[in-house]
Amino acid sequence: MGRSAPIRAGDETRESERESLLKRIAELDRSLEQALVVAEDAQEEARLLAADRIQLEEEMTAQRHEIAALRERLTALETRRAELLDALADAEQRLNTLRRDESHLSEELQTSYEELQVLTEELEEANADLEQRVEERTAQLTESERRFRTLFEAMDEGFLLADVLFDGDRPVDVLYLEMNPAARRMAGEDYVGRRLREISPAFEDYWYEVFGRAARDGEPTRTELYAGPLEKWISFYVFKVGAPEQRRIAVIFRDVTERKQTQEQLKQAKETAEAANRAKTKFLAAASHDLRQPIQAASLYAHVLLGSVGADPVAQESLSRLKASIDSLNGMLSGLLDLSRLEAGVIEVSVTDFAPTALMTRLAEEFRGVAEASSIDLRCRPGRLAVSTDPHLLERLLRNLLSNAIAHGRPKDTDGRGRVLFGCRRRADGVEFQVWDNGPGIPEDAREAIFEEFRQLKNPERNATQGFGLGLSIVSRLARLLGVEVALRSRVGSGSVFSVTVPHARKPEAGAAAVPAVRREPRLKGRTVLLVEDDEQVRRSMTMMLKRWGLRVVAVSSAGELAATLPSLRRPHVVLTDYRLPGGDSGRSVVELVRQRWPVPGIIITGDTAPERLREAMSLGCRLLHKPVLPADLAGALGEVMPS
Questions:
Q1: Helix, strand or coil for residue 218?
Q2: Omega cis (within 30) before 503
Q3: Helices (H), 307-425
Q4: Are 487 and 499 in contact (CB under 8 A)?
Q5: d(CA 187, CA 181)
Q6: Whole-angstrom Cα distance, residue 612 to residue 36?
Q7: Residue 413 DSSP symbol
Q8: How many other C-beta atoms are found inside a 10 Å radius of the C-beta of residue 229?
Q9: Is the CB of residue 183 less than 8 Å from the CB of residue 158?
Q10: Given the DSSP bridges, would you call strands 248-255 and 376-381 parallel, antiparallel or unpaired?
Q11: Can you give the pTM of this predicted structure?
């Protein structure tokens, strides 16, 4: 039983394969039958196709004949087509040309049309604008005419229109066409329709010349003329109006008779004041000379006594007080001298670049003792910025400002200390030197007067210890000489500040330059001085002082004595002479007399502050010293003029 099961399974498989094979054979039979049917159909179709082929070949033969005919026709058509294409190309070219011409013409027409439209719009706008401007101009002209008529009637100046009548090129008369009320008032009558010669034949010829020049040449003139028939000075402006061929003028004028009279009065007053000023200068020169003679002798004797009083305190105090009094008088007269030299115009400005530090420090030290004695706290703030100016003139200007501040810069009616600040500040246009004080201040109505000569606000009793009132006047003149301005700011009760601005140094490296050093006393020993002095006291004191310096002195009292002594003299090193000498002689005649023998330098001493003395000394090439001469100044002058 175990083996029969596999056998049945194999049989079943073979049975199944046989059935499949039978099915396959049956399908092949059917396919063969179908193929036979298809073959039969194909044979039939081949027969039909052969018949169709024969027919088609016949048709193709016919078509070939037809195609040959068509090809002949096509060749003919191609030829015709080429001809037509050539004709068409030519026509197209002509058409394109016509189109281009038409396009250009169309563009031009369009442009012209657009321009015409723009021009039409502009013309319309211009026409509208013109109409508006005509209306506005008409209104303006109407308004201008109204204003002109109002002005013509109301103006203070006279106004007239006139025709100038000529005989050839020569103006012979003036015909008045129109006058305003002011012109009629000034003339005293109405000139309209009348001629000038008819009105008054006495009118001066220059009226016709000025009016004729304006009418003929169109040359406007502004001037002032005197009208004799009216007895008035007339200031007027005349100019040509109307068409070029017309000889018509317009004149605007006013009466200036009163101003002319005032000017004449002012001129006479100025001449009177200048004459008074010249008389004042001459008086000061003469008075200065007379005052300086005794002061000169006293100063020289004091200098001689300085080394002779010993240790006696009473003698030293007396000599000190005597010297202080002489110095006070000398300071006052020096103010007159400075004023005279400035008026004479003989001071030369020598501009240089320098640093003002040493100058400011020296001035502060010089005034510190005076300030302490006056209960003034003096402070100095020197600057390092270099300036460009005359150092000596700047020093004199600042010295006067400091002296003024110390003398007048104390608080009013108080026991407190005064304060003076001396400094400088950088400004855009230079260095500003300032002198501040906390004094009573200067009222606004007196700020110009304080720069006048002999004006002192706080010294009505003319106390000589407070000076002559020349310090600020000299400051003002020195500032003008240096080309700068003195500024003043002040508040009553709070103090004042005087300032002057000096230009910056021209070269930046000039900052290290210093003010020229003060001259030292030269070596004079063994030199010979020819002294001519008529005042015995001055001659003796001068001789004593010169001999103390080691100089040999030949002293005479007049030019006559000098002339008698001169042949026996040896050549001196210098001539030292007073200006005014007996018998009408002068220092000039002394110098010229000595120089007839030797080319000797000269020093002229005078108490005369007149500007002429300064110019005269400069013309001789001599040094001029004013009495009273300080010993140091005399020694310095001797050292400068004598050859080394």
A1: coil
A2: no
A3: 313-344, 357-373, 391-408
A4: yes
A5: 10
A6: 171
A7: T
A8: 14
A9: yes
A10: unpaired
A11: 0.38
